[in-house]
Amino acid sequence: MPRTDTPEARLRRLVAAAAPAPGFLSDHDVVLRPAGGRNAAVVVEVDGEPRWVAKPSRAGEASGEGAFLRGLAGGSLRDVVPRVHHDGGDGLVTAHAGGVPADTVPGLASGHLAALGRFLAALHDLPVADGGSRPPWITRLHRPSPRRLSRSPAAVVGLVREVQAHDGICAVLDDLAARWRPDVLTHGDMRLANVLLGDAARITVVDWEAAGPGPPALDLGWVAGDLLLRWALALDPGAPSEPLALRSGGPALHRACSGIAEVLDAYGPSRPDPLPVMGWAGARLLQAAAEACQAQLFAPPEARMITMAARLVLTRTDAFADRVAAVR
Ligand SMILES: Nc1ncnc2c1ncn2[C@@H]1O[C@H](COP(=O)(O)OP(=O)(O)O)[C@@H](O)[C@H]1O
Ligand SMILES: [Mg+2]
User: Is the pLDDT of residue 131 over 90?
Assistant: First the structure.
């Protein structure tokens, strides 16, 4: 790799390419702040105001996110997606959308939950291109390639071993992958960090890198999984049995299930079956546990709580689906 191709150098090139005129960066007070995603995205502040979000492409990897966003810009989702400001081999720059990332808000208001449900229904109604698509990698967590395993941090290897030792979880992950159908256009990474909450129930949905054909329950399940994360973090990891652990998170579980029910209700007149949605919610929890284990030698306490929640949801999916159905 040439010396100039560091992440910082790529970011500087991207911001320079996004400047509307030569000299813009020296004429204005431009500050870069971490945007808070999983990668290297930054908020570009110009004269004290957030103006763009710049996401450098990973070396040699064009994500296609910009082209995809431009395709959505003229259609029914134009108010929900960020505007593309610059898109090139160096990365993507979108107009800063304002709002608060939904994962940082303790409780989502009904208006925002309903907006999420309506947005997903509209997205899943768009024409979907034929073509291959694969289930998310988390459905293969228990079947890692030796190469992947050798590159994983110790805490992730520990999680893989824990899942492999649990036949019930392996069977559910295999089942999710086997039932994968590219029926609708999905966002593909509907974690709450990718949803910005604005005034008057307005939402903006960012991070379309994983968009493509998939089952509708994937997106609904990712939202449901993230709503369940708050319950997961209220669990008592030292509880001596699963029923006691479930009791320890009772009120938080009720809040999460009510939120999931509100999203499903707003999704449309043909209310989706909560069973596959909760299967994917369990997969999302497992993914969140794996993410919490990244770069760790030992699983941190929150990873242990989320793993416990994932195990409960994946092995008792029908009971969780019943709970959601009961609050509707
Ligand atoms: N157009 C935007 N306006 C405001 N905030 C944004 C915008 N795009 C992204 N963000 C914020 O930056 C974070 C990271 O961007 P994202 O596209 O999700 O990248 P990553 O792939 O790193 O997760 C998001 O979680 C969101 O909080
Ligand atoms: Mg993101």
Answer: no
Domains recognised in the chain with CATH numbers: 7-97 (3.30.200), 101-326 (3.90.1200.10)
Q: Which residues pair with 7 in a beta bridge?
A: none
Given a cut of 60, whether residue 261 has pLDDT beyond it is yes
Task: Return d(Cα 114, Cα 110) in angstroms, integer.
Answer: 6
Give DSSP secondary structure letters for 38-87. Answer: SS--EEEEETTEEEEEEEEPPTT----HHHHHHHHHTSTTTTTSPPEEEE
Distances (CA, A) of 275 to 2, 171, 271, 319, 326: 50, 16, 12, 9, 13
Please give the distance, rounded to the nearest whole angstrom, from the Cα atom of residue 108 to the centre of ligand 1.
Answer: 19
The three-state secondary structure class of 207 is coil
Read off the tokens for 13: 């090139």
Mutation to probe ligand 1, out of 68, 196, 209, 222 (largest number of atoms < 8 A from CB): 196
Provide the pairing of β-strand 184-186 with 100-101. Answer: unpaired
- Nearest ligand atom owner, CA of 65: 1
Query: Which residue ranges have their beta carbon within 6 Å of ligand 1?
Result: 35-39, 41, 53, 55, 82, 94, 96-97, 101, 193-194, 196, 206-207
What separation in Å is there between the alpha carbon of 165 and the centre of ligand 2? 31
**Of 28, 25, 2, whose CA–CA distance to 12 is shortest?**
25
Over range 84-110, report the average pLDDT: 94
